[in-house]
Write a sequence for this structure.
């Protein structure tokens, strides 16, 4: 019941990344998006090329994150999921930072969440 949309993912430029570590980032974000949409919805992966960076937005139409939880979501062991470890978003934050990038979140309860990873371009 989940629709996957891929938007502007071609010819974004080159970034330096460790494939295994970055795969973990994407798996964590996609898994969280799927968990947020138990009744189905839309998962969108959208790329954007800017002057010196590439951004990847992972957007869902799920339940959203309550505003009071947003300041803690990247902290280790913080979870709102039954049985969750609280390490997924912490790992996302740490791996993106280790690649010289940033991760941001925007969320509206009942409408969905967008995590945006921004990484520096390398080379021409």
């Amino acid at each position: 019941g989940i629709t996957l949309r891929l938007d502007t993912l071609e010819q974004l430029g080159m970034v330096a990344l460790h494939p295994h570590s970055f795969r973990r980032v994407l798996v964590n974000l996609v898994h969280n998006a799927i968990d947020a949409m138990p009744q189905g919805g839309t998962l969108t992966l959208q790329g954007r090329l800017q002057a010196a960076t590439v951004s990847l937005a992972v957007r869902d139409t799920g339940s959203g994150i309550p505003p009071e939880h947003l300041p803690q979501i990247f902290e280790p062991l913080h979870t709102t999921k039954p049985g969750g470890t609280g390490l997924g978003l912490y790992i996302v934050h740490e791996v993106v930072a280790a690649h010289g990038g940033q991760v941001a979140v925007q969320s509206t309860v009942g409408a969905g969440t967008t995590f945006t990873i921004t990484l520096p371009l390398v080379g021409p």
About this structure: The helical segments are 19-35, 88-98. The chain has two helices and five strands. Residues 19-35 form the longest helix (17 residues).
